[in-house]
Amino acid sequence: MGDNQPTVSVGVVSATHRRVSPKIGEGERLYQDMIQTDAAINPGNSGGPLVNAMGQVIGMNTMIFSQSGGSVGLGFAIPVDRVKRVAKEIMQYGRRRDSWAGFKVDDIQSLRTDYRGQALLQELGTRADSGCLVVNILKNSPAYQASLRPGDVILSINGRKVSSASDIDFTLWDLFVGDKVKLEVDRQGQRVAVEFTVQELAQ
Questions:
Q1: Using CA atoms, how far apart are residues 162 and 157, in angstroms rounded to an integer?
Q2: Which residues are registered as beta bridge partners of 20?
Q3: Where are the domains of the chain?
Q4: In the CATH scheme, what is the code of domain 99-200?
Q5: The domains spanning 13-93 and 99-200 adopt the same CATH topology
Q6: Closest CA relative to residue 58, chosen from 95, 11, 25
Q7: What superfamily in CATH does domain 13-93 come from?
Q8: d(Cα 98, Cα 189) in Å, to the nearest integer?
Q9: pTM of the shown model
Q10: Could you write out the DSSP letters of every residue in the chain?
C-alpha cells in the first residue's frame, strides 16, 4: 500500500479458552487459553491489540490459521492478563523464563495398544485404564522432590482430567516460574496427591 498507517478490522470473538498446537501455529510452543476471533488478522498484525466494543484491550493478536498466508477469519490472541504476566517477567528478568517440572509421560491408552507398552504396564503393576504414565523423572526436579515417581499414573493436573500427554504439556507450558502444580496420581491402585512449584529451566 506504500504507507505505514495502522488499520483496524471488525469481528467477533468466536471462541475462548482455545488450545493451539504447533500443527496450527507452525511453531514449537503449545498455546492454551487463546481467544479466537474472526476479525481479519494478517501477517504483520502480530503484537497488535484485540479490543472490545468499549475500546478496552482484551488480548494481543498472535497468529492466524491460513493456507494462503492471508486472513481467512480464524485468528488467535493471547488474553491480556497473560500478556501482563509476560510483560512483568520481561521487565524484571529481561525475558520470559522457561518453567520446568522435570518429568516425561506416555499415554496409558497408547501403551495398552502396543505389546512393549503392555509389557511395561504389567511389569509396573499398573492398574489404571486412563491417564499418563510417568516414564522418566529427574531426581533433582521439583516433581521428584514432591514424591512423584516413575510408574505413577497422572489422572489430573490442576483440577483438569488428563487423557493424553498433551493435556500435561499444555498445562505446564502455560505456567510461570513459581506457579503451583497439583497432581492426582494413581500409585498401584492408591490415589495420591502430589504438589510442587515449577522452577526455572537451567540455561
A1: 7
A2: 31
A3: 13-93, 99-200
A4: 2.30.42.10
A5: no
A6: 11
A7: Trypsin-like serine proteases (2.40.10.10)
A8: 33
A9: 0.78
A10: ------------EEEEEEEE-HHHH-SS--EEEEEEE-S---TT-TTPEEE-TTS-EEEEEEEE--SSSS--S-EEEEEHHHHHHHHHHHHHHSS-PPEE--EEEEEHHHHTTSHHHHHHHHHHT---SSSEEEEEE-TTSHHHHTT--TT-EEEEETTEE--SHHHHHHHHHH--TT-EEEEEEEETTEEEEEEEE-EEPP-
> One digit per residue, pLDDT tens: the chain, 203 residues?
455 666 677 778 887 777 776 554 455 566 778 888 888 777 777 788 889 989 899 999 888 776 555 556 688 888 999 999 999 999 999 999 989 999 999 999 999 898 888 998 888 888 888 999 999 999 999 999 999 999 999 999 999 999 999 889 888 888 999 999 999 999 988 999 999 999 998 76
Q: Which three cell numbers stand for residue 190?
A: 492408591
Let me know the angle formed at the C-alpha of 167 by 161 and 169, rounded to the nearest 5 degrees.
140
